[in-house]
Design brief:
The structure is a single chain. By secondary structure, the protein is mostly helical. It has eleven helices and no strands.
Length: about 250
């Protein structure tokens, strides 16, 4: 695996965390109950910390070197490499929970591998620290999937609609390209076929218990890793980046 490929992996890991963190941060002051307002904001902060760590290392590999702030606030949408799933709008609370649940299960499997691999100690350290956080994230989103699926007729209908709408983005988590294959061969990333099987077992268990159904016959969507995003990312970045782009020399 080349340094350029390693930098790309770091950017993907950082961008996934950053974009989802921004989406969850949008709930601050708007969640349906105070406890969830705090929970979603705390999960966002966990993700921001992870994003900062990954992007800091990636920035140091750029020529010239860039800071994590540079990468977060001074890149255009087509330069971001996050999964399409994570840039989707928050929608209603069920949409946010379903998006979180689908990613949390994948994120936990990935972190468990990254923490044990010996290819890059920096990545292993970040992942090892994150595992406890991700376990909580997955526990939180799983319990809400069960609560909403097993709740009222309306809550079950809404969370099923959320699952139907977001499922189309899930295959992208397991897609491989030259960068991914190189990282898998080196041992940095896990086998995606095996990871997908474990992910399906995990999510299907919760979905079935919640009385929900896996969508069938859907056309999967992808492109985020190549910078081909939905319009939602650009709209989100306009808000996220407005201050540092308007006042690039500002400091706290």
């Amino acid at each position: 695996m080349t340094d350029l490929q390693l930098k790309e992996i770091l950017l993907r890991l950082g961008d996934d965390s950053l974009v989802l963190a921004q989406r969850l941060g949008e709930w601050c002051g708007h969640a349906p109950i105070l406890e969830e307002d705090i929970a979603l904001t705390n999960i966002s902060l966990d993700l921001i910390g992870r994003a900062s760590n990954y992007l800091h290392i990636a920035g140091g590999m750029c020529e010239p070197a860039k800071s994590d702030d540079d990468l977060a606030f001074h890149r255009d949408p087509e330069e971001f490499t996050n999964l399409l799933l994570l840039e989707q709008p928050n929608g209603h609370f069920g949409d946010t929970i379903c998006r979180q649940f689908l990613f949390d299960s994948f994120s936990l499997l990935l972190a468990n591998h990254l923490a044990k691999q010996e290819v890059n100690s920096d990545i292993a350290g970040i992942a090892a620290k994150a595992i406890k956080e991700i376990r909580y994230h997955f526990d939180h989103s799983s319990k809400w999937m069960l609560r909403l699926g097993g709740g009222t007729e309306e809550s079950q209908s809404k969370i099923q609609d959320s699952l139907n709408a977001l499922w189309v983005f899930t295959d992208e988590m397991f897609e491989t390209d030259e960068v991914t294959n190189s990282a898998i061969e080196a041992g940095l990333l896990p086998c995606m076929e095996t990871t997908k099987k474990a992910w399906l077992e995990s999510v299907v268990s919760v979905i079935s218990e919640a009385g929900l159904e896996i969508p069938s016959g859907v056309v999967m969507k992808s492109g985020g890793r190549d910078g081909n995003h939905t319009e939602h990312l650009g709209e989100m970045l306009e808000v996220m980046q407005v201050l540092p782009r308007t006042y690039p020399d500002a400091t706290w």
